[in-house]
Structure formats: structure tokens, C-alpha cells
Amino acid sequence: MATKNNRIIGISPLFQIYKRTKVRCTLLLFLLCLLGSPSFAQTLHSVVFADTEDRNIGESVAKDFYSMSIEMNTIASATRMPIQEHFYYGEDFRNPKFAEVLEGLRIGSEDIVLVYVSSHGARPVQDACAYPQISFPPYKDTDHFSLCQIDKVLAGKKPKFYLIMGDLCNSYNNSLSPKQALPKGNTIVKNSTEAVYKGLFSQVRGSVIATSSQAGETSIALTQGGAFTLCFLNALQAMLASGKADWNELLGNSKYCTQEVVKRNPVFEVRVQSASATTPVVVQQETTPHRNDDFMESVRRLADNSRGEEWRIKNASSVLQSHFAPNAIIEVVGRNMTTVVATETADKFLRRLSTSFKLTNIVELASEKNSQGKIVSLKVHEIYKQ
Q1: Edge-to-edge strand list for the sheet holding 144-146
Q2: Which domains does the chain carry?
């Protein structure tokens, strides 16, 4: 040891400075390489607006709202992207709110934006746009927002990919005419399903715009939801089963189905290309809903496997006490929104979540609170990883 120490002491001061400088330069070079490497964190911006209070189409539109809310969250789970939810219906379905949400989107170059609207729609006689205008209450001339305008706004924000989809009338009539089966259980995201979702959404660049009817036609609302929305969701399920990802085929099948079922002619345009080989940074999936309530975030954390089962079990009781009324009931429904998969007390529901290891997302469909702001009933849909 003495000899070794003597050798260290014997090194010239100039050489020691050289060694320290070399180490620092190597570390600096390493850090610069890390910083210089391209890394992109993707976010899924999900916008769903639905005119659920209209006396003619409200019941059907509500089905669309629930179906597309579930589908948006399924896309987020399958692509493993964090989702920002902007889901509005009822009294929130207004033109100023829609414009505020659209303009307020903070979109990165690797982000994905999905916009879906189910409502009345119309078009001016001289309108050159092939797509309709959304009609917002109270349905005056100033209460319209064109799908082409949405296209222009989103194109200016330059996301990696965006989808605009409207289940709307596209008729020339100035007076608005009303719009004249999905799996029953929980959603299961398989590896093959993930591949198709990624092929449609996270591995492409460009945009897609689609609406339920061509110029001059009304749109049709069925008891299960809008005809075009139902055809799109069914065509998507068939594509997920086939293992193929093709926007032209997906919307072509959706159009054919709509033509066969309700004799309407959807219009769409696909402007996509394969994304670059750059692998995006996968961040832990979280949701940022527009609602002021944070109880669903607390609920979702209990199902988050990355937090560890001990932490989840420990926090289940605090979530129960903070957000749920005594004897609160939770109803878990299938993708068709009618099949009841399970009915549980809040205590049993939260304890089940805290020990689950394949549950990836929970979609709130409806809730009711008491005068103290505590949940007395909650309807949800659950998304699992196979």
C-alpha cells in the first residue's frame, strides 16, 4: 500500500490536472450525447362534444358520447400514451366552450389529437367545404363551427396526427332536421390489438377527417347511437380482429355499412403517411379530465401497478373516505353501456382495484353526488391488458 501511495504522490501536478480535465470532458461529452439524442414524449389530446340535451336526438347522442369516451381511453391504453380528456356534453355543449377548448390545446410536434362531435349539423348553400358545420344551441347563425375550420386550426398547431370525426347532418336546409353492437363485457387490450391501434394512431403522421353524410343529406340517429358512429366502431372492432391497420379500409367499411343500414353516404379524406422510425418516450399513462373533480384520478391511482400493491391497499381507505358516501354503489358496464358486468359497494370496488394487476384504465360514464359532494353512485367501464 505504501508503494501505491508513493506512486500517486509522485505524479506530476500537470499530469493530475490533465487526468481531471479528461474525466470532466468525457462526462461532458456523455451528457451532450444524451441531450442531443432525439426523444419525444407523446400526449393524446381527446376532444368529445355531444348535444345530449336535445329533445330529438339527445338520447342517441348520449350513447355516442359514452361509446367514444370509452374508445378514446382504449386508444390511450393501447398506444400507452397519457391522455388529456376534454369531454363536454349537456349545458357545456356550446360554441364558445368548443372554440375555447380547440384554441387552448397545447400541442407538441409528436402529439396526437382526436376530435369527435355528435350533434345537429347543417351547411350554407354556397359552402365550398365538403364537411358540415356543427350546430350549437340555441341554433342561431352564429352558433355554428365548421369541420373545415377545425381542420385549419389543428393543421396550424402541427401535431403528429389528428382525426376529426363528426356524426352530423350535412343538409342544406336552414331549419335543422334531427338525425333520424358493441362487445358486452370489459374492454380487453391484446398485444395484437395494441399493434393495430399503434398502426392507426401513433405510428403515422398526417390527418383524417370524416363525417356521417354527404352534402344535402341528414344524418341518422338510432336508439343505440348515431348510425355512422356505430358503423365506425364496428368496423374498428373488425379491423382489430384482423390485425391490419389501414385508415382507407377502416373508413371505407364504415361508409359501406352506413350506406347499407341507413342509406346515407359518409364523406372522408385520409392524409397520412408512415411515421419516422424514432421511438417515442413512453410515459406512465395518466388522464387529465376537464372536470373539476379529482376523485377519478384518485381511483385510477389505486389500479396503477407501478405504485406497488402495498401502497394501493393502504390508500384505498382514504380514497373511500374522501370521495364516497356510505353505501355508495358502483356499476361496471360493458362497451355496449347496457350489460352490467358487476355491481359493487364502493369499498369492495376500491379494494378490488388496489389488488388488480391487469386493469389499465377506468372510464367514468356517469356519477351522482350528495349535498356534501360525496359520490353516491358511479357508472364506469374498465379496460384491461390481456
Answers
A1: 121-122, 133-135, 144-146
A2: 44-274 (3.40.50.1460), 291-385 (3.10.450)
